[in-house]
Amino acid sequence: MSNRSPLAALLASVLVVLTGTQACAAVPSDDRSAPAERRVVQRADADSVIAISIDGMSVAAVRKLGREQLPNLYRFMRQGASTMNARTEREMTVTLPNHTGMVTGRRIDASAGGHGVTWNDNRLTPETVQEAAGSDVSSVFRVVDASGGSTALFAAKTKFTLWQRSWPDAIDVTTIDEDNSELVDRFIADLGTDRDFRFLHLSPPDVAGHAHGWMSKPYLKAVRQADALVGRVVKAVNSDPVRKARTTILLTSDHGGHGPDHSNARLLDDYRIVFMARGAAAGRGVDLYAINPTYKDPGTKRTTYGLRRPPVRNGMIANLALDLLDLPAVEGSEFDVDQDLRLTAPPA
């Protein structure tokens, strides 16, 4: 848990410089003093994992736009493992709580062992995820760092500076840029650096949904924009044959949306999301539920936690990424804690 003073936290947040509607920051971290998860790295299924979250992308929009208008996402599915019936966190269908679940592998409710992040803005109190939970909370960043690996965060919303404050020694570079095209430029430029894990957050659908409504023409245009941004990332990864052979890309969302909002955690349009994987460790054109008998397609149900056969959740990103890197699960996590979510069909 951070012991920094409120003034130190404020100074850290000032590193994010706002210019008009854009925000840019690059925050390097050199201290590698992570706790007891350090171990020797074994042979991995992927040398590098990229996790992409498309903020506010609804399954209804992906289905409506189809292959012709979302060529990159549909190619992602054809060439990888996927489902369009994954789930968000049960408690809330909002951005920061769900994204924090993605990197911690935890539910939201702190009283039940969750990460405790229930807000969705730039507040500095609680200052860290650990303060919100009332105890130490690890993350995918910390586990990778403890193994001697490198991580980076690229996000289109300034509220993600919470993660830099929470795991300052484990995230080597944090880049915040509200211009998604510029953010992807900076992400692609970073591919030349040897990193084990990168997290990329893209915001166009969520921004358009709040401004114009989910499934509106501007919203659907924003989903197409997100598709093009994903295409740029995949193209950049594939441009180097060695990098292509060693990289797995995971893709999901924090929530969908309906009308002008997405905060109704009981609404199918809000809690149903995509979950996809392609690259070095993923099969081609396979349905995640079809190849994972320990997980169950929830149909239209919201579902609870602790099921014998749970649905695929966005909170599985952390431990799936670590499994691909041949690293242990995040300490204190519960989603895919056994690291048994398959991306390839078992041998016949």
From TrEMBL:
<feature type="signal peptide">
    <location>
        <begin position="1"/>
        <end position="25"/>
    </location>
</feature>
<dbReference type="Pfam" id="PF01663">
    <property type="entry name" value="Phosphodiest"/>
</dbReference>
<keyword id="KW-0732">Signal</keyword>
<protein>
    <submittedName>
        <fullName>Alkaline phosphatase family protein</fullName>
    </submittedName>
</protein>
<dbReference type="InterPro" id="IPR017850">
    <property type="entry name" value="Alkaline_phosphatase_core_sf"/>
</dbReference>
<dbReference type="InterPro" id="IPR002591">
    <property type="entry name" value="Phosphodiest/P_Trfase"/>
</dbReference>
